[in-house]
Design a protein that fits this description.
By secondary structure, this protein is of the alpha/beta class. It contains 14 helices and seven strands. It comes from Cacopsylla melanoneura.
Length: about 280
Amino acid sequence: MYIHRPYKLRRGQFENLLQNMRNYTIQLKENPYLDENDLTDEDFNVFCPVSKEQFLDMFTYCDPVGRDRREISKKDLLAFLCKTRQGISDEFLKVIFKYPTRQCASNKIALVRKSLQARFVPENIGLQALTRDEYMQRHVTDFANHLLNPQPEIPRVIVLNDCTYLYIEKSSCFKVLRQSYSVHKGRHLIKPSMLVAPDGYILDIQGPYFSNTANNDAQILINEFQRDVETMRAWFHDGDIFVVDRGYRDAIPMLERLGIQSKMPEIMQPGRCILYMTAFFYILT
């Protein structure tokens, strides 16, 4: 039963109530997205390429950065992930996340990037993120092992190596302008080299390299084994398998000297129309 009774507030209680309401309104105005709970799951997926659980796990890696140990908020991480997913400008991030200036938004993005590079990236991406045995157990599929490994009963590391590209804006530096121009694509770009497992897991991202003729795919692979001798040669052993395309043909002698097997599509012989089985198996891998 409802009983209508007046509720009395003392002067101090009323002042505290108004002050709390004022502070909350100011907080919402300055920080419209306080954390992941302010967005629904559908809206959150629009902002970020990860789920809310993954977002919280990633936030645990956001340690303070710099000599002054600047803290990173969930809003900063959300803005960083939004930029990586949507590719929007810092001016647009300033409007969405209510940063004071565009420079402030840029600084926050750079701060999150430095923080993630310190601990999150080394622990999740790269040859140091997992051992050879973990890689073979988790990411080398049975199909790839029986198709590419001459001795399927002996597990081997199987890696697909290829270069991709990322378009960039024209540089004001003439040297960088020339080095980043790709004659093949007709645009300015950089080339990261990808080491990918048969199940799609990204083992390592090397580079990025300029896209001029001095950095072809084979030379990039040779340079990685020469530059990072301790890591690359210690992680890859005799009998491991590299799946590459014809752009790596100049790197095959180097792989053979290291005892690494290479799987590459053959060149079509004169008088033949197509490499039926080789092309079929290569597409499957």
